[in-house]
Amino acid sequence: MSTGWSPEPPRPAGRRRTPGPSTVRPAASSGRSPAAAAGQPGPRSAGQRRARRWLAGRLADPARQRSGAEGARPEAVPPELAAEAVRRHLPAVTPQEAAVQMRAVADDLTGLGPLADPARIPGVTDVLVDGDGTVWTDGMDGLRDTGRRVDAEDARRLAIRLLAQGGRRLDEGQPFGDAQVTGARVHAILPPLAAGGTQISVRLAAPEPPGLSDLARDWPHGEVWLAALRHLVQSRANLLISGATGSGKTTLLSALLSEVPADERIITVEDTRELRPRHGHVVSLQARSGNAEGAGGVPLAELVRQALRMRPDRLIVGECRGAEVADFLAAMNTGHRGAAGTLHANSATDVPARLFAMGALAGLALEALTLQASSAVDAILHLERTDAGRHPVELALVDRSASREGTFRVVPAWSLTGRALTPGPGRDLLEAVAGAAGRRGGGRHALDR
C-alpha cells in the first residue's frame, strides 16, 4: 500500500441519497436491485458499504503490508478478498451476479468508482464529470452524455480518493491536481475554482499501447509520415511534438520510443506518468507536488537535471509547459541525441513563439533562447484531431542558417491540407538530418555537426 493512503471513510449512516437517472432503488423483496439482477451494479446498498469496509480493513492489515502480499497496493484488489467480501455481505445467487458485485466493490474502493463502467465502453478515451454531476464520455463517437449522474459529495470524495491513491493531495489548500491511477490520468479541480461542483477528467490509456505502424495505418498518407518518422528516430534527431490537448501527442511519442533500438537507455521525465513505450530499458521519473506546508516538491526542471546524471541515451520530457524548457534545451545541447518532448502549440510554425514564451518564464534572454533552440531542435511534428482521427498535419525542420542571423526559423517539409499532402522546402533538410544528427558509438554520446 502506498504510504499515506487510507481508504475512503464510510458515508455517514444518516445520509440519504436521491436516485439520479442512472440509479435504481433496491427491490424490497429480494434485497437485490434490479440493476444487479440484470448484471449491472446499482446504487451503493448497506451490504455494499459493509463489504467495502470489510475489504478496506483487510487491505489495510499491517500483516499483509509487512509480508508484501500481492494486492497490498491500492491499485490491485486480490480476487480472493473481493470474493470473500461479497460472500460475507452481499446476496449473490449466480456466479455472474457475484462477479458483478466483486467488480463493483473493487471499483468503489480502489478503481474509478461510478466512472468505471463508462470507462470500460470500447472506444472511450475520456470520462468527464461536470459540475452538476453529469458523466460524459469522449472517443471515436465524439462527446456523449451517458445519462449517469454523480452527486456533489460523491464527486468530491471520489476526486480526493483518486488523487490520494496516485500520491497527490487535493484539498482547500491545493484545490486542483492530477495523478496516474489504475492506468488512467485523472485530473480534478474543486469548487470554488470549478463553478457548480467538482470537475473530474479521466484520460484512459489504451489496453495495449499501439505501435507506430498501427497508428500510421489510420492516418491520411500514413506511409509518408511513417517513413519520415522512422527516419528521424533512426537518425537520432531531436524532435518536438506539438498539438492541442487530445490530439494524440503522448500516444505518438510512446509509439516512437518503441522504435528506439533495444540497446539504448530511455529516461522519461513527466509531471504525471503517461508514456508507456514498448521498450526493454525505460527509466520513468515523475514530478512531485509539495505537502500542505509547500515542502518536498520536486519540479520537472529538477528531474531533467537529475536525468542527465543517469546516463541517458534518449532523454524524453513528457510535456514542456514552462521554465523546464531551459533545462530541456540545455540537455539537447549536451550531445544527448534523440531527445524528444511534447508541447501545446497551434502549428509547427508557431512553436518558436511558444518556446520564446516558455523561455521568458525561465529568465532566458531572446538571443540565448534563439541560439539554444536553433542548435538543439532538429524537427517539429504537429498533430491535429479531425474527422479522420488524430494524425500528423505538418512536419517542419529547423533552418540552421537562420541562427547566424539571430532568428529561430522552421521550414515545412510536409503539410496536410484537407486530404492533400504537399512537400515543402524542408524536405531537403529532412534528408540531411542523418548526417547532422550523428550516431551513438562506443557508449559515448556524439554530436557531429
UniProtKB/TrEMBL annotation:
Residues 192-385 form the Bacterial type II secretion system protein E domain. Residues 19-46 have a biased composition (Low complexity). CDD domains: VirB11-like_ATPase (cd01130). Pfam families: T2SSE. Residues 1-78 are annotated as: Disordered. Belongs to the GSP E family. NCBIfam families: heli_sec_ATPase. This is TadA family conjugal transfer-associated ATPase. The lineage of its organism: Bacteria, Bacillati, Actinomycetota, Actinomycetes, Micrococcales.
